[in-house]
Amino acid sequence: MRFPAPVALTWIADLIKAELLGNSTSMATGINEIHRVEKGDLVFVDHPKYYDKCLKSAASFIIINTRAVEIPEGKALLVVDNPFEAYVTIVNHFRPFQPAGSAISETAVIGEGTYIAPNVTIGHHVQIGKDCIIQPNVSILDHCIIGNNVIIQSGTVIGSDAFYYNTKKDREVWYKKMPSCGRVVIEDFVEIGAGCTIDRGVSHDTLIGQGTKIDNMVHIGHDTIIGKNCLFAAQVGIAGATTIEDGVVLWGQVGVSKTLTIGKNAVVLAQSGVPSSLEGGKTYFGSPTEDASIKRRELVWIKRIPEIWERIKNLQ
Length: 316
What we know:
Largest sheet: 10 strands, mixed
Distance between the termini: 71 Å
Structural class: alpha/beta
Number of domains: 2
CATH class of the largest domain: Mainly Beta
Strand content: 25-35%
Helix content: 10-25%
Mean pLDDT: 94
CATH architecture of the largest domain: 3 Solenoid
CATH superfamily of the largest domain: Hexapeptide repeat proteins
Number of helices: 5
Radius of gyration: 23 Å
Number of strands: 34
CATH topology of the largest domain: UDP N-Acetylglucosamine Acyltransferase, domain 1
């Protein structure tokens, strides 16, 4: 999430009641999770396992619960007892919940020639381009951006909260919701079917690339990056922080795990499960996915097992 303007680090420290160590005169430009941080960003870490990764990341400022680490040159630490709660405080200050006062927010910007059907909800600070078609009962939630010539079919939700929780087993409520302050960005000429759900990023963007076509009942998780001219059939499910490169085809009921990459022009056949990254330019099948030609030969041999077993028994 970008701040509306750069914010003094001393002000942030006062907001979250932090001890400020290191480069205390800097300005923060945003707050992000570790996998999407950029220079000028704040990031939080509350487990020793991830201290080093955060300190060496692109983030300029680290909200942390220890002083016993070396501060990288030019960076700053904001030391607090509970970094997660500090993150929540910052997000809620800069991106507070705003109740809807009307079906279409007065702050929404809608381009010329765009059709908005009855019973559509458009949230605060949404931008919709020219010549789009938004069918009945679509919800486009706060801060999302829709390009030109986009079609969104009935019942789809754009910008729902990420399924993302801070987990601690030593407290009464194990799973505490991380507020989603990211966006969904949909580029030009994208088509989205009926009953789809596309989660906003936790702190950055979920992106749907130009020309991508999505069938009905598809779910796309938070912070996922989908390239240009992809094709997803019905009931595809994609977990969070996944990268799907240009021209990928996912046929019906394909399930894709989190934080992996599917390479350019890969094809995954129906009802396959993708647990790890796939090389581009190949066709895959199965759960876990394998090269489809190898998987087909494997299935042929599995079907022949009873016949082979009978022959072995007859030879005895």
